[in-house]
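Hi all, a correction to my earlier message: I attached the wrong file for DUF4129 domain-containing protein. Here's the right sequence:
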Amino acid sequence: MTLPASAPAAALAALGPSGPPLDLGRDEAGQEAAKELLRSGYQQESLVDRLWRHLTQFLGDLFDSAPGGQAGGVVALIVIVAVLVLLAALLLWSLRRVSRSRRAVEEGLLGGGVRTAAEHRAEAERLAAAENWAEAIRERLRAVARDLEERAVLTPMPGRTAVELAADAGRVLPAHAAALTAAARLFDDVTYGEAPGSREGYASVAELDGRLSAARVSLGADA
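and the right structure:
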């Protein structure tokens, strides 16, 4: 029996996608792979889209599985409102934290106000008596910075950070460089890391303040 000339083509068409692989060149294979990766099934989903998809799926499942008809729908609605309120509160807290950290960075160690070293020390002692250790630590290191500026050990510099204070003062007073660095790290922890601070931490900064107040500086040397 003689097959018609169109039989091989018809047979290949009948095999469909499960037929034998085509003999593609390297360039053609690369193009085919790129096309395959561009299909929706291979596209990477962003984190926001993934979270939104999971949330909407969760809410949809909650509605579908809510028992009791209308009463179940009310329960599901209450849960949804509670979830949305929680998400809004988390977002607001995050925005406030970022704003507070940015403002603290812009204002620097001494902040926006103008106080003398003695005023910073008095405020630090008041806060320490109230066991507000984080704010007491901040005020005491501000007293250190202001005292060094008042005594012309350091040149006043608006926006100076705690780290910059430790570096600048450490060059002039090298014997206290390590303690200054530790105090600056503690300041950053209670300011940006929202650490609660401690009595011991405040005592260490207060001791440093006392030692620096008694230090005398000559050209390039520590007294």
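Sorry for the mix-up. The first helix runs from residue 7 to 15.
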